Amino acid sequence: MRKTTRKAWALAAGVTSVALLATACSGNAGGDDDETAGGDITLTVATFNEFGYTDEMFARYEEENPGVTIEQKRAATADEARENLNSRLAAGSGTSDIEAVEVDWLPELMQFPDYFEDLSSPDVEGRWLDWKVAQATTEDGKLVGYGTDIGPQGIAYRADLFEAAGLPADREAVAELFGGDSATWEQFFEVGKQYSEGSGGKAFFDSAGAIYQGIINQEEFPYETEDGTVTAVSDGRVKEIYEQVVQASVEDGLSAHYSQWSEDWTNSFQNDGFAVMLAPGWMLGVIEGNAAGVEGWDLADVFPGGAGNWGGSFLTVPSQGANVEEAKKLAAWLTAPEQQIEAFNNKGTFPSQIEAQESEDIQSATNAFFNDAPVGQILSNRSQGVVVPFKGPNYFTIQQAIGNALTEVDVNGADPAAQWETVVGVVEGLG
């Protein structure tokens, strides 16, 4: 029997250090051939947030592959999934047969490629965008993950709240309001001030951390260079972005002061907590779920600073698994264009597969919840001209430190300068 579970994995230590993987690496033992070859097997698939994989999809695979049962384990957040995977890799057992990995923490795992199966195969060559493949390929050519989605971003907004504040509400007019093809972050914040004034001081966007994420993802080398030099503090650009976001969020009062994925943030969708969100494709399903029954959401084909990509994930096959060959087959099937189109239709996860992106299914896709917005065309447009940031092994640690600092400032009212010094301490501690 197939089942989908949502499980919050609690770690005794609180935080799993990637260094733990290094100490365990010498004892890493790859999985043997499928232990139940010729018999019935259960394949576990660990995902997080919303991948768009449904019980119906898994049932179809099971029907086509007699003897295979699939169990999906879904973590509430990517951070939760990361901690779970790191702890089980370090322990040498307990991973799922397929583990979903988010691009921000993939570079950590790429330091330990022996933990994962090589997924290279002539059958999948040319399936994905070149830069998507490059993100999961080691220097010696090992492919450790099959791409699922990417995260081109538009601006999701509440048309009814815009209208009530005296702003344009039509999606084309909203795109022009933000600057159209010449949209800038300065103009984004200016529109926020207009909304705040017209609405009697209501919050414009949900979270300082989300806005920071949108800006930093447009930097080619946000925190470190390809030779491993950490520049997050030394070059001044990151601090400049941090201060810009703090100014808009706290001093100008444009933030609703939520931490994304918190209970308060989730509940705020039901009480008009804010008017705008930066929205990669995968976020559309999250918004629809949190805002169920709320009318007025729409999606504008515009993004400040040009194109921007937030997130995107991969399916990996840990070598410690008992059914690695069958897991590879399932991972290849799930990331085939047909299944990723279906996942997009389910939850808005924009496919990284070239054939899927070019398909009529994607190009003509609309989303009823977002006022029948042509989401396929919008996200296709938004994917053009994306600058793919370099994300080295320190990326996640630095990003998390800055995210924590912004949460303290935006949500808890902490001093911005003191929180920045905390970030500096984390960066300097990297050596």
Structure in words:
The chain has 19 helices and nine strands. α1 (19-25) packs parallel to α3, α9 (208-216) packs antiparallel against α10 and α10 runs parallel beside α18 (395-410). The protein folds into two domains: 3-150 and 311-375, D-Maltodextrin-Binding Protein, domain 2, CATH 3.40.190; 151-309 and 387-428, Periplasmic binding protein-like II (D-Maltodextrin-Binding Protein, domain 2, 3-Layer(aba) Sandwich), CATH 3.40.190.10. With 431 residues, the protein is an alpha/beta fold.
Which helices and strands appear, and what pairs or packs with what?
Layout: E1 3-6, H1 19-25, E2 41-48, H2 55-64, E3 68-75, H3 78-91, E4 98-102, H4 106-110, H5 130-135, E5 146-158, H6 159-164, H7 171-177, H8 185-198, H9 208-216, H10 237-251, H11 263-268, E6 276-280, H12 281-290, E7 297-300, E8 309-316, H13 324-334, H14 337-347, E9 350-351, H15 354-358, H16 360-363, H17 375-382, H18 395-410, H19 416-428
Parallel strand pairs: 1-3, 2-3, 2-4
Antiparallel strand pairs: 4-8, 5-6, 5-7, 5-8, 5-9
Helix pairs in contact: 1-3, 9-10, 10-18, 18-19
Mean pLDDT: 92
Q: Estimate the global geometry from the Cα principal axes.
A: globular
Sheet of most strands: 9 strands, mixed
- What is the first-to-last residue Cα distance? 50 Å
Order of helices and strands: EHEHEHEHHEHHHHHHEHEEHHEHHHHH
**The top level CATH class name of the largest domain:** Alpha Beta
CATH H-tier superfamily of the largest domain? Periplasmic binding protein-like II
> What do we call the CATH topology of the largest domain?
D-Maltodextrin-Binding Protein, domain 2
Structural class: alpha/beta
Share of β-strand residues? 5-15%
